[in-house]
UniProtKB/TrEMBL annotation:
Keywords: Membrane, Transmembrane, Transmembrane helix
Segments crossing the lipid bilayer: 56-75
Database matches in Gene3D superfamilies: Cupin
Gene Ontology terms for molecular function: 2-oxoglutarate-dependent dioxygenase activity
Protein name: Cupin-like domain-containing protein
Length: 325
């Protein structure tokens, strides 16, 4: 008996079904089984063709999802933009509880000068105990160089504005949508204290941003350096943070979602800090205030201490900071 099966235009599963139907018809007409041995062997060999096809489809789907996840991470999340942000109240609710040992003995802010690396490492670097170092910006030219107009000039000359806009921006209560909008205020608003001296009522302003653009970072870092007291093996984050503004505004009470402690240098003006322990430590630790003045560096684990800042009257406040490991 001669059998001819045309597979053109049919997938393997359809061919398998046709062969099975053909086998039944032949057996019904009395064709001997041994004459269909080649057909049975073919069916047995390809009996699992459909599951294989499904497995191939699953593998392709999984690989496609992995590729998409990698593209999304490196092309979107790494630029610090998030499609869905968890509300602050939920972040606080799901925050792991702290061991209150870090704050039990802290009753006030300590001030130090000319502190050695060894002493700072042992007492402050990773203990959660905050401190103000009063002499760490002595040789920094940033105190004379940095101001609103300097930043506006540098960022307006930046070649890659899209990269600047990718950096995180904190408008606080100003309504600014991005850094370039914040650096485009009219002179009357920028010169807040001159306007007050003329008897006017200027609108206060305060904002912060991360400097993740290599071009501007290279320019800025010519005017400040690594604080002398940091542990020898520690490295500062490649991204620095700037905060600038007038009295009447500041950062609300919050705790940061970061991994490392940080330092923040007061380059101009002054800020009053209110520090509070996490809720689970209220009955073990104390809240207290500290005034950070021009030239000071405050070292603080902002992932443990709740903190709020108040720009003090008299001058525009400007700070720069970074995390360290």
């Amino acid at each position: 008996m001669a059998l001819r099966v045309q597979l053109t235009g049919l997938n393997m599963f359809c061919a398998q079904q046709q062969l099975k139907n053909l086998l039944k018809k032949c057996e019904a007409k009395g064709v001997k089984v041994n004459q269909l041995k080649c057909v049975r062997e073919f069916l047995k060999e390809h009996d699992n063709c459909k599951p294989k096809k499904r497995n191939y489809f699953k593998a392709i789907l999984i690989i496609s999802l992995l590729i998409y996840a990698l593209i999304y991470y490196y092309g979107h999340l790494r630029t610090e933009h998030c499609s869905l942000l968890m509300p602050q109240a939920m972040r606080y609710a799901f925050r792991p509880p702290e061991n209150c040992e870090f704050c039990k003995q802290v009753k006030h802010m300590e001030h130090v000068r000319d502190i050695s690396i060894e002493e700072f490492t042992e007492r402050y670097a990773y203990s959660g105990r905050p401190v103000i170092v009063e002499d760490a910006t002595t040789n920094w030219t940033a105190l004379e160089k940095f101001n609103y107009w300097y930043f506006r000039d540098i960022y307006n000359r930046a070649k890659n504005r899209e990269k600047v806009l990718d950096c995180q921006f904190l408008p606080y209560n100003t309504g600014f949508r991005h850094l370039y909008e914040a650096l485009d205020m009219p002179a009357e608003r920028v010169e807040f204290y001159k306007a007050k001296q003329r008897g006017e009522s200027p609108e206060p302003w305060y904002f912060g941003w991360s400097n993740c653009n290599g071009e501007t970072a290279e320019e800025f870092r010519q005017h400040y350096g690594r604080p002398y007291f940091l542990p020898e093996l520690s490295e500062s984050s490649p991204i620095d943070w700037f905060f600038m503004g007038t009295e009447g505004l500041g950062a609300q009470m919050h705790v940061d979602n970061v991994r490392l402690p940080s330092w923040q240098a007061q380059l101009a003006g002054s800020k009053r800090w209110l520090l509070a322990p996490p809720p689970e430590c209220y009955f073990h630790c104390s809240s207290f205030e500290a005034l950070v003045e021009e030239g000071d560096i405050i070292v603080l684990d902002t992932n443990r201490w709740y903190h709020q800042t108040f720009v003090q009257p008299g001058a525009i406040s400007l700070t720069i900071g970074a995390e360290y490991d």
